[in-house]
């Protein structure tokens, strides 16, 4: 199976303005660090993905905790399987002062070139316990390998 994935940028949580590290007081430094550094929460991220092959199917698992089923978009076009989704950062928790956010927010997009021996109409996708799972059954009638004799 040939796999193609789209690289995304790493999260950048700290604002990098030129005057950022020149605070007039230490209180102002900590206030700016803890209150303003989360304004730039990344807009893309790259979730962990496991890909396996069994005798009867290909299996893809994407670790995306905190999503809803409606947050995903899965397309198959000319053998290219594309999985994308979005999780928005909610700042409604005014009673909390965040000191660290390691949860990934924003959008992701992963693409995989599938082989010709799949049953595209039988692909199943489920989302449970933060894992998006896709089962891509193989078509037993289509063999990708064959023996070629030399004449």
Number of helices: 1
Strand proportion? 25-35%
Distance between the termini: 30 Å
Quaternary structure of the protein: single chain
From the helix content, strand content and strand pairing, which structural class follows?
mainly beta
Describe the biggest sheet? 4 strands, antiparallel
Return the average pLDDT rounded to an integer: 76
CATH class (first level) name of the domain at 43-88 and 102-137: Mainly Beta
**Taking Cα atoms only, what radius of gyration do you get, to the nearest Å?**
22 Å
For the record, the CATH architecture of the domain at 43-88 and 102-137 stands as Sandwich
Query: Could you estimate the helical fraction of the residues in percent?
Result: under 10%
Shape: elongated
- CATH fold name of the domain at 43-88 and 102-137, please? Immunoglobulin-like
How many strands?
7
Order of helices and strands: HEEEEEEE
Keywords:
151 residues, mainly beta, Immunoglobulin-like, 4-stranded antiparallel β-sheet, 3-stranded antiparallel β-sheet, 1 helix, 7 strands, disordered N terminus
């Amino acid at each position: 199976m040939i796999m193609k994935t789209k690289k995304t940028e790493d999260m950048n949580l700290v604002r990098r303005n030129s005057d950022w590290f020149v605070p007039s007081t230490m209180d102002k430094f900590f206030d700016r660090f803890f209150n303003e550094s989360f304004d730039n929460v990344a807009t893309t991220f790259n979730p962990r993905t496991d890909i396996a092959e069994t005798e009867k199917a290909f299996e893809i698992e994407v670790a995306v905790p905190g999503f809803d089923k409606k947050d995903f978009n899965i397309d198959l076009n000319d053998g290219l399987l594309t999985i994308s989704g979005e999780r928005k950062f909610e700042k409604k928790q005014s009673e909390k002062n965040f000191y660290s956010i390691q949860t990934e927010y924003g959008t992701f997009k992963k693409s995989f070139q599938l082989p010709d021996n799949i049953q595209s109409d039988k692909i199943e996708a489920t989302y449970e316990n933060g894992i998006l799972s896709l089962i891509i059954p193989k078509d037993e009638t289509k063999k990708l390998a064959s023996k070629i004799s030399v004449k």
